Amino acid sequence: MSSELEFVYVTYIATTPEKLWQALTDGAFTSQYWFGTRIESDWRVGSRVSFWRDGALSDSGEVLEYTPPRRLSYTWHVEFHEEFRREKPSRVTFELEPTADAVKLTIVHDQFEPGSKVFAAINGGWPKVLASLKSFLETGRGLAVAGCEAAKPAQEQAIAEAQRGAASAKARR
Amino acid sequence: MSQPSFVPKTVYVTYIASTPVKVWAALTNPEFTRQYFFGCSVELEPKVGGAFVLRMPDGAVNAQGRVMAWDPPRKLSVTWRVELSEEMRKLPECLVTYEVEALDGAVRLTMTEAHQWEVPDAILSGGRMGWPAILSSLKSLLETGKPLVVRLEPPKEMLEAVRRVTATG
User: Fold this and answer.
1) Looking at the complex, does the CB of residue A171 fall below 8 Å from at least one CB of chain B?
2) B59 near B66, Cβ under 8 Å?
3) Residues of A in contact with B11 (CB under 8 A)
4) Which of A53, A106, A153, B133 is the most buried (most CB within 10 A)?
């Protein structure tokens, strides 16, 4: 059973859909902005996705959709922490839309268990990863902020509430 | 005097390779805001209770309100009434807060849009479309010297909802 929890984040990046796609799917690129995380997959639908950090498997998943350079989706199972590992996999979807002189990137992370602890953690993590991705593509350098600390509880709650609102608004369109 | 209670409805967090002083300048200086805020100039009286105006390139007022928190370079909070139409002017004002925090290697910027009424999601959709474009452009401007040119469609869903709410209210 999955819950209503949903994280939605939009950013605009001065790049091309092809370069952004490569940055999302090629481990040589992810390791430069994703705080040392190397993504690995043959990107066939149904294939495994692995995230390696400091020589250990941090997260894993399965490719759900691979439509370059428009839409990428995989399941997400946190491996690096026991409390998170108990939860069933959630789902991450990236959508890339070219605009005048930037690419609009929308990320939706959903299908969490009710009361998911992973959800709380990713709320703090994604804005950092995506800000670093934008810096990497626009300046050649990712950000040097520390990795995956969770958002502050008040912020987390506000984000969760805001994201639920955004999700229901989206569902009605 | 009882303060209305504002509940956060939209939060946007980003990280910028910059300093709090530079991020603060980008938020409060019209020379900067014109470059990333759809051409709008911010006008702020630098004190709590001071006037806040967001002015469009043609001089018309986009939004205005009062400064509720002024703590450079950490926190700026303003009440925000959209003045783009007669109908929008009738809506309860919201509260927009920027928080700027220095971390190792980057500045965390948190924008919170809080409301004092049961605001429909359709009305919130306007800000949820706009803020990511504005703050993405702000980040680009500070990191690369160049803002983004993002053109958004008019927020039809929001405009229709504003019409419905103000017609019955």
Assistant:
1) no
2) no
3) 155, 158-159, 162
4) B133
| Mean pLDDT computed over B129-133 | 96
Q: Does B106 touch chain A (CB under 8 A)?
A: yes
Cα separation of B68 and A59, whole Å? Answer: 43
Distance CA B84, CA B54 (A): 11
Give bridge partners of residue B106 from the DSSP assignment.
B103
Which residue in chain B has the smallest CA separation from A142?
Answer: B17
Is A145 close to B105, i.e. CB distance below 8 A?
yes
- What is the per-residue pLDDT across B106-127, written as a single tens digit (0 to 9) for each? 999 999 999 999 999 999 999 9
Q: How close does chain A come to B124, measured CA to CA in Å?
A: 8
Look at B9 and A165 and tell me if their CB atoms are within 8 Å.
yes
Q: Check: CB of residue B125 under 8 Å from CB of residue B157.
A: yes
Residues 6+ apart with CB under 8 A from A170: A8
User: Could you tell me the two tokens for B99?
Assistant: 């928080």
Backbone phi and psi for residue A35, each to the nearest 5 degrees, phi listed first: 50, 45
- Weakly modelled stretches of chain A, pLDDT under 50: 148-155, 165-173
- pTM equals 0.90
List domains and CATH numbers for chain A. Answer: 7-172 (3.30.530.20)
Largest distance between two CA atoms of chain B = 50
Strands of B17-156, DSSP E? 41-44, 51-55, 61-71, 75-82, 94-103, 106-115
Cα B70 to Cα A72: distance, rounded to the nearest angstrom: 42
